[in-house]
Amino acid sequence: MQPVTITNLDRLLTALIQARQRGELHETVLERLPSEPGADHIFGTRTDKGEFKPLIRFRFDQQLPDNYADVLRKHGYQLVVVHEKHRS
Question: Which CATH fold topology does 8-82 show?
Fold first, then answer.
C-alpha cells in the first residue's frame, strides 16, 4: 500500500472546507499575492468589517498546480486576486 501524499492543493481545499463549515467562508476566496520576493502567498476571506482574514499561508517555495483556480471553481469557490500594496 502506497503512503498518501497530501499536496498543497489538498491543504488549500481542506482549509476552505473547514472555514465554510465554521461559517467563515461562503464562496469567495481571496488570494493575496505577495508584495515582495519571498513573502507568503495567502488565501483568505473578508470579515463582516471588510478586513482580510487569512485562512492558509504558503511560503514562496510551496507551489500550487497551474490549474488550481479551475479546481477551486469546480468545488464551488469564486477566486478573487488581491494585490497587496508594497509597504515602504
Answer: Ubiquitin-like (UB roll) (3.10.20)
